[in-house]
Amino acid sequence: MKTFAHRILFIFLLTMVFYAVLSGQTTDPRIISTDILNKIEKSLVIDAPTRGIMNAVSSNDLKKLVLSWNVIENLDHHFAVHIESGEITDQKSTGRCWLFSALNVIRPAIIKKYQFKNFEFSENYLFFWDQFEKSNRFLEAVIETRSKKMDDRQVEWIFKNPLDDGGVWSMMGSLAQKYGMVPKEAMLESYSSENTRMMNQLIARKLREGGFLLRQLNEQGKSEKQLREQKVTTLSEIYRILVISLGEPPKEFNWRFKDKNNQLSASKRYTSQEFYKQYIEEDLNSYVMLMDDPSKEYYKLYEIEYDRNVWESQNWTFINVPVDRLKQFAKKSIVAGYPMYFSCDVGEQLYTDGGYLALGIYDYESLLGVKFGMDKTARILTFDSGSTHGMALMGVDTSETGSTTKWLLENSWGKEKGNDGFLTMTDEWMNEYMFRLVVKRDYIPEEVLQVLEQRPVKLPPWDPMF
User: Least C-beta-crowded within 10 Å: which of 186, 271, 404, 463?
Assistant: First the structure.
């Protein structure tokens, strides 16, 4: 009898809750009740101005409606210091900005010294080896973690990210030191080098297949030597895909050039290592990787796991430095004639047609009547902002009092984008959306360089910034 009465009471209470939900009288704050919905609906007053905004937004590109001419009219593309470079490059439909930017940093000195009319390294050559080395990195990471379960977070990350076409400054140096470099004429772009999506997708699929096979062989008790024999078999298939898609990297080539007077040099034969040693006089190891990440402690050394392409090279290792100090180092470097590798969240407040990066250039708040108030730290921790694009920092401008007002970036989206291929970035925008900067040691104070002697804090590859 007691059990029956309890059941009747339970059914009664459940029925009451059901009708309470339907009538909007529930007190459960997790549920969007009728009362809550009514309150939200009443918070919006659709008056004449709001209806006009609704009509405009429903028929137009939102970014065109919020473009602020008040901001644009106070900008220009003039710079007190501008490092001369070669012709604007174009990464096309790829994520190779890191590679183009890194090479654009080192080529101005070469053009100046040898009086080249124009000069460009073969991005395709280094990209070929980047994809090959990243494939090896993936397979080695699989072997390294073969005893962990498939649902382990590290193993899961490895298989979700077998390779891509993105990267950082240090990856260019690792490739150049191992494989040398060649001029663009020695290995031209291909369709797949300029449109990497399909090739990357197929290589990733083959790598996952090869990685899964390695784990199966390990479960069958195969030795580490046998696993690596299978790794070489998979790498041979990857190499075939790369050669068919990108072309075969030259071991030797003939090259000649035109100088600024349009005089043609004699042809000379090089290996990739000979070319690298002759024309890259700058020690690539003399550059220091810096970052402004306010979500982490400053003046500490950090390392990102698996953030490299060549297995035996170093992960991306950086000193975390406040943006105000980074700008001091950058200004000294530009004045001395040395451009820098720079990366940022380029999609924020970018006016591509005008070539500007400026806070408030798109005024979403005024149009929508909604405030967007996160600071840089919050944007990082919530995955709202991070480093998305690399460029070469080439110039700086100052006010009459000497304070920095804006910076010049050489982009790799072709001459048609931006201001003849360049972007002008305001100093305030740099504070908010710049993340990485690579500077020669000469322009960094000794107390900051001493941070390099610390044992780095190793960050996981799924850290919010990466």
Answer: 271
